[in-house]
Amino acid sequence: MPDPKRDDGLPPDVRPAAGQLSQPLDLDSISEQMEQVRAAATALLDKAESSSSVADLATAVEKAAGAVKLAADVSKTRSEMAKIREEISRLAQENALVTERGRSERIRDYVALLTPLITIVTLAATLVAQNWQFLKSEQNKREEALDSQWRDSIKAISASGALSPGVVALQPFLRSPKYHDQAKDLAVNLLASGSDVGFFASLFGAALTPATWSNLDLLLRLDRALSARTNPVYTKSFDPRKETNNVKLLTKGEVATFNYDQAVSPIISAAVGSVLKTSRPPGVTVDLSGTSFNEADWDGIDFDGASLERTNLYWISLKDAELKGVTRFAGMYLYRTAWWEAKSINRPLLEYLKQNSPFKAGAYGPRHQLTSQRQYDDGVRRLTSQLTSG
User: Fold this and answer.
1) Run of H or E residues at 101
2) What is the pLDDT of residues 274-312, one digit of tens each?
3) Cα first-last separation, the chain
4) Which residues lie closer than 8 Å to 225 by C-beta, 6 or more apart?
5) Among 78, 233, 293, 352, fewest CB within 10 Å belongs to which?
6) Is the peptide bond before 172 cis (omega within 30 degrees of 0)?
7) What is the four-CA torsion angle of 338, 342, 347, 353, rounded to 10 degrees?
8) pLDDT tens, position by position, 150-183
9) Counting Cβ atoms within 10 Å, is residue 353 exposed (0-12), middle (13-18) or buried (19+)?
10) 10 Å Cβ neighbour count for 48?
């Protein structure tokens, strides 16, 4: 039996299912339902024609008109939905175009921003490359000029056979990474063979100062070379009775050598002493063999493990020096050097010095201070007591 609340005169098969109107319909669904509505209108008109009652005919006509109106509304809805679909499609296309346009604009902005930056980087790289090439070229020119200057200096020194004004050109090579070592070696040879005290002062300062453990070997090489040259002069001029050197026994050249050594030996001795007073680097041994030192303050130096074979110490101060670690001392000779003022000593060295460098009344040390027999005896007694207590 038909539901009176829903009696719209439409056949049941053309009525929308419950909840169907609340769902969004696509155009195909609307078109199908519109055909159903039209079919329903046609069915109502057929019913009206076959009806025998005027009231039924009027009702059928009214319902058919309603169905036709509904079909028209559905057709209108379909048209509006088509427009909406077209509008959605258009908006989607515009949105895609806007997104693409925005991306293009950002890319364009990035390109506009990076273009000058790339230009600057390229220009900077070009300038760096050109600058490097220029510096390299200038360096090559300087090295070529330095090579030429070095050869000229060697020729000047070789030609003169002695110190000449041209030797002053040696000083720039002392700072050259390429000729540093060769220049140092040449400086040592020139200083050991020269007789010009003024030249010694200028070249020694440039080549061998500041005195450090790194250039101690060069200082000792200079001292050994100078000692080998001057020892015969001292031996020839020394008067044992007066304990002085008589320069009248020397030739003019030997006198020049004697005076040169008297002036420069204390400078070398002070430089070596200043190094030995500093902390010794690990693994470094001190080899003073074959050297001669004169008038220097070597107070407090630790000679542990040092070789003092054939070492000559003239007028040296050894106050508070550590001598207990000296085991190589064959041929060592101390003149006017108060070795008994040392802080420590070993027994073999003590006996050796008592025998070969005994006390003699007079002055000792670089300041030529008078020393008495009592001071000597007290010093020996103190050192001996340390050996006994040890």
Assistant:
1) helix 54-160
2) 999 999 999 999 999 999 999 999 999 999 999 999 999
3) 136
4) 188, 189, 192, 193
5) 352
6) no
7) -20
8) 777 667 666 554 455 556 667 778 888 888 889 8
9) buried
10) 18
